[in-house]
Amino acid sequence: MKKQLSIFLTVSGLAAGAFADDLELTKEALSKWVETRRLISEEKEKWELEREVLGDRIDLVRSERDALSQKIHETQSLITEADKKREDLVKENDALKNASATLVNRIFTLEQSVLKLLPTLPEPVQDRIKPLSQRIPKSEKTDLSLSERYQNVIGIINDLNKGANEITVISEVRKLPDGTTAEVQTMYVGYGRAYACNNNGDIAFIGFPSAKGWIWEQKNEISRQVADSISILKNEKTAEFIPLPVSID
Question: E-assigned strands of the chain?
Answer without folding.
Answer: 167-175, 181-189, 193-198, 204-210, 213-218
